[in-house]
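Problem: given the chain below (317 residues), write out its structure.
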Amino acid sequence: MSCPSRALLVVSLCSMAIALADNAVVRGDLRDLSGSADRFTIFLVNMQHSSEVQRAFINASGSFEFHSVAQGSYLIEVRNMQGEVIKQQPLTVMGPAVETSISLGHATKSSSASGTTVSVGQLRRDPDGRAAREFVQGEEFLLKKDLANARKHLVKALKADPEYAEAHAELGTCAFRAGLLDEAKQEFERAVGLDPKQYIAWGNLATLYFQGKSYREAEQTARHGLEAAPGDLKLHFVVGAARFAQGLFAGDTAEHLELAAAGYPNAHLVLAESLMRLGDAQKARTHLEASLASNSAEIRDRAAFLIASLERTSVRK
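Solution.
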């Protein structure tokens, strides 16, 4: 049975050709609370279908969770006990698990004369809301994979507000998908330079480094992202995969891959190969068997090859 080599497999796997679930879990937390968390309620509003609203309660630590969220653009609303919206924040769901955080440090009641919903943070940067409206339209086209129109609106958003970190991040995503990697890198770097909490941009920047086989830079970049979003599964995956690609199987490689496997099942294979090199054949086999359920034939073939190798080694003993 032919099987992909480790080197080719790592580049393919860690270029983020990952099978993603149709629906996602959205987890988040409120920061800078000035009182009890039970004074607030979180709502998730679908930007394409505003009648589709999910509600979540906040636990004592400030965390909340939404289940079975379809891919798309959303607005997270924080409402007080009177039902007033005190903070709004856009959210794009594009994977099996999304982590977010909302700071209430500067929260105020929000409104929009035009009826278009925008975040408080965006309104502070652009009082008439032009940048925010262009950004929302850009995201809608991006979700439809219409890169030309997405780019047009995101460029307009940045003309209205050149320091709009989220727009730089999404413009980078447009460039990335169009194969304009140098431009994508510049936009992601601008995004995190303006706002180090842009963990999605950190993850995309780390992915670019990985694709360029700059594995050390990929690891370091993903670790910066984890400082902003400690629970982001993609960032954990990139750290673990980048360490594996550098031949660093010990340390926290397995820890990051184990965490990532909850949302990125194909992380099981990289984790299994790391464990094999550490001599833990039994645990490695468990993760190889999990890899057999992958949507990727390349990964299934590699997993089957390694299981057969473990069995041959066991027989010889």
